[in-house]
Design goal:
The protein is α/β, with parallel strands linked by helices. The chain is built from nine helices and ten strands. The chain has a single domain, classed as 3-Layer(aba) Sandwich (Arginase, Chain A). The strands form two sheets. The chain has an eight-stranded parallel beta sheet, sandwiched between helices. It is globular, with a radius of gyration of 19 Å.
Length: 318
């Protein structure tokens, strides 16, 4: 029986097509008109151990529907603020086309998508995929002015070359540091046995990186970490889900115990959004098949939704 007093559709989270947050899908990127453009980058041929992050964009989109009830925005009683009101236009671009076994071709298609978002004046948000997808994301910022990168991750990802591989998921921060428009990196959460040897750490520091472990970040506190970023930076944020402890985010290819918990990261992101101009975001390495509960994908979607809320609340003078 249909409710006679309800003139609209209830449109519950488990109903309909799983775009990000159930926001509109735009197939023709030339017609993109949005404040935020969501791009899937389902590429995981850059992994060195467990694959599966190619299904990350699909899983994060589905998880994001949990936060799409749409009643009175997203009110936060702690902040006494409503985040992501209808005035913030979020659109889903779908996925960049991935060419199996072809890293360069796949990366080029991801770069095209990010460039389309930037050309439309939208904030590009890329959902990976393995961390190599950050390489084309950063390439797309050529000609956009200087940027600083905040990386939240378990691994430094600063390998120059390993057995001829320069564009795998162990290389993205090295490739970023080589860009003349990247004026520094703040790398947070780096811990335990990493994907980068000692010379990688030496090179990273010589090329302008500030490296903090989880314990060092906790000692400083979230605001103390963001204090280390140059004032009023144009900030690109890259989040590897393995920055979080696998006790809350097991669905990833290279889990590393001793990671962040939710509010460790959320408070850093909120502070960053208040102090800096966030110009781009990627969230990578969600591999949903390793987490049958779906909690990792929900965590990823929740982090992205909150970060977008913080950014546009700050832009509106909040």
């Amino acid at each position: 029986m249909t409710n006679t007093y309800d003139t609209g559709r209830l449109n519950l989270p488990f109903v309909g097509i799983s775009t990000f947050g159930k926001r509109p899908y735009v197939e023709d990127w030339a017609k993109l008109d949005a404040d935020v453009a969501i791009l899937g980058a389902p590429f995981d041929a850059g992994t060195q151990w467990r694959s599966g992050a190619r299904f990350g964009p699909r899983a994060v989109r589905e998880a994001s529907t949990l936060f799409s009830f749409g009643h009175a925005g997203a009110y936060d009683h702690e902040d006494d603020a409503t985040y992501l009101p209808e005035t913030v236009r979020i659109m889903d671009m779908g996925d960049a086309d991935i060419i199996h076994t072809d890293t360069e071709g796949s990366h080029a298609n991801i770069e095209t998508g990010v460039r389309a978002a930037l050309a439309a004046g939208a904030l590009p948000v890329t959902i990976g995929g393995d961390h190599s997808v950050n390489i084309p994301c950063i390439r797309a910022f050529d000609g956009q002015g200087d940027i600083h990168i905040l990386q939240i991750d378990a691994h430094l990802d600063f390998v120059d070359e390993r057995h001829g591989v320069r564009h795998g998921h162990g290389n993205p921060m090295r490739r970023a540091a080589e860009c003349d428009y990247v004026n520094g990196l703040t790398q947070v959460g780096i811990r335990n046995v990493s994907s980068t040897a000692k010379e990688g750490y030496d090179d990273a520091r010589a090329m302008g990186s500030d490296i903090l472990s989880v314990r060092q970040a906790r000692a400083l506190g979230p605001k103390g970490v963001i204090d280390r970023i140059p004032d009023r930076a144009r900030l690109y944020i890259t989040i590897d889900i393995d920055a979080f402890c696998p006790s809350i985010a097991p669905g990833t290819g290279t889990p590393s115990h001793g990671g962040f918990l939710y509010y460790d990261v959320l408070e850093m992101l909120q502070t960053a959004a208040r102090r800096h101009d966030i110009v781009g975001i990627d969230l990578v390495e969600v591999a949903p098949d390793y987490d049958p509960t779906g909690s990792t994908a929900i965590l990823a979607a929740q982090v992205l939704m909150n970060l977008l809320g913080f950014i546009f609340h700050a832009r509106a003078g909040g």
